[in-house]
Write a structure and sequence with these properties.
This protein is mainly alpha-helical. The protein contains 14 helices and 5 strands. The protein has helices at about 1-15, 15-30, 40-65, 70-80, 85-110, 120-145, 150-160, 170-175, 185-215, 235-260, 285-295, 300-320, 335-355, 380-385; strands spanning about 30, 235, 360-365, 365-370, 375-380. The longest helix has about 35 residues, at about 185-215. The protein binds protoporphyrin IX containing FE.
Length: about 400
């Protein structure tokens, strides 16, 4: 207590601490709309995961070496030799997946509650930029262990840049730092992953939180009819909402450690540019685009495939300006809710088809081969055929 007083006294003698503490008190005391619930914790969950990714990423950087000769060996060294290296590598790998999931859930919540409408259009637009940066984090980080699956998934992923008309070839060369994936690509992905994206995301999150605080959270009132939240109706940000967020933070840590122990990410075989693995698939968050691209064939197929994969992102950016209806309550926005559900279910179905394509699966006791397009074909039962 004495230390606290001497520190605050020291600062108060030199700076205008009233302004700073007044600002913090005002932020902590803010009232949130009465419908604020557990569904409103995904934003802070995303923030928490970003902080965890930054801390574990810095710890990985101490031993990681971004060259084709050393990258894979350095990851093996972190896992086998460094104190708790296996744990923070796993938390970083699982954290990436959970962060993308948290961001998508947060986006879904704000979409269905109509929180992107006036005056929060720019909060949403900054969110879409954050979403793109988050998946680019996943794409660039995936290559860093320099294993077979990452090397070939990056080869296939960067190849799709070539399908963009006019600039495609140049773009693929620019991303790879050459005609094929090499150490140049690894250097580029490393710089983007550890310098450019972290700072970009820090800036974007700062803008996002500032905009969110400036307009407060959306109520369920129609656009133009939102009233300031009365103290007796609103939910106090501190301690009520902060308490919910803290519970979720503890659960998150438990989930991260459990997944790290029970389902560790493999390091895999070192990258070999001369040996192509049989089935190369991207990470789960790229599976919907990967599957969608397969349905576009023929002379202009590649072009229309790229258009089909870009349109959902363009729609996301423009959505607050396209959906001009006044209502926010999901029950009063059947068209927007319907479009959202179709988009969400479509992405899930495409992702699932991408996951099972070119594999064999058993449904209700019957074995099927799922082809390139996700169509199941019954596998002939060899033992029965032999018996007949
Ligand atoms: C690292 C990623 C992100 C972080 C840390 C973050 C953080 C937050 C936080 C803490 C809130 C307060 C309420 C809540 O949690 O629901 C919020 C609100 C909001 N966010 Fe995000 N966000 C992220 C990504 C996104 C994305 C991808 C979108 C949409 C494309 C988005 C759109 C919004 C909107 C529209 C609000 C206002 C919600 C309302 O008024 O009810 N955010 N964000």
């Amino acid at each position: 207590m004495a230390l606290k007083h001497s520190v605050s006294g020291f600062l108060a003698d030199r700076y205008d601490m009233e302004t700073a503490t007044g600002f913090l008190r005002k932020q902590a005391g803010k009232r949130l709309p009465p419908h604020t619930s557990w569904l409103h914790v995904f934003g802070s969950l995303s923030l928490l995961l970003f902080i965890s990714q930054t801390i574990t990423g810095i710890m990985l950087l101490i031993y990681y070496r971004p060259t084709p000769d050393e990258a894979h060996k350095s990851i093996q060294y972190i896992t086998a030799e460094v104190n708790y290296g296996w744990l923070y590598r796993q938390i970083h790998a699982w954290g990436a997946t959970l962060m993308i999931l948290a961001v998508v859930l947060h986006m879904t919540r704000t979409y269905f509650f109509g929180a992107y409408k006036k005056p929060r259009e720019l909060t949403w637009v900054s969110g879409v930029l954050i979403f793109i940066v988050t998946i680019t984090f996943g794409f660039t980080g995936y290559l860093l262990p320099w294993n077979q699956i990452a090397f070939w998934a990056t080869t296939v992923g960067t190849e799709s840049a070539n399908k963009i008309p006019i600039i495609g070839e140049w773009l693929r060369y620019f991303i790879r730092g050459g005609d094929v994936v090499t150490g140049e690509t690894l250097s580029r992905f490393f710089v983007v992953h550890v310098i450019i994206l972290p700072w970009a995301l820090t800036g974007l999150i700062a803008v996002h939180l500032f905009l969110m605080r400036a307009t407060n959270l959306a109520t369920l009132e129609p656009v133009g009819e939102e009233k300031p939240i009365e103290p007796k109706h609103g939910i106090p940000f501190f301690p009520v909402h902060v308490c919910k967020e803290s519970i979720v933070a503890v659960l998150l840590l438990a989930v991260l450690v459990t997944l790290s122990v029970l389902a560790p990410w493999e390091i895999g075989e070192p990258a070999d540019p001369l040996v192509t693995p049989e089935h190369i698939k991207p990470e789960w968050y790229f599976l919907p685009s990967y599957q969608l691209l397969k349905y576009f064939e023929g002379p202009y197929g590649a072009f229309f495939g790229i258009v089909a994969c870009s349109v959902p992102f363009l729609l996301l950016f423009l959505w607050p300006f396209l959906d001009r209806g006044k209502h926010r309550h999901p029950k009063k926005r059947p068209i927007a809710v319907g479009i959202g559900l179709v988009g969400l279910i479509g992405a899930l179905v495409l992702g699932y088809l991408g996951h099972v394509s070119e594999t064999e699966q058993t449904f209700f006791g019957t074995r099927y081969h799922i082809d390139h397009y996700g169509v199941p074909h019954r596998v002939a039962d060899k033992s029965r055929d032999e018996g007949e």
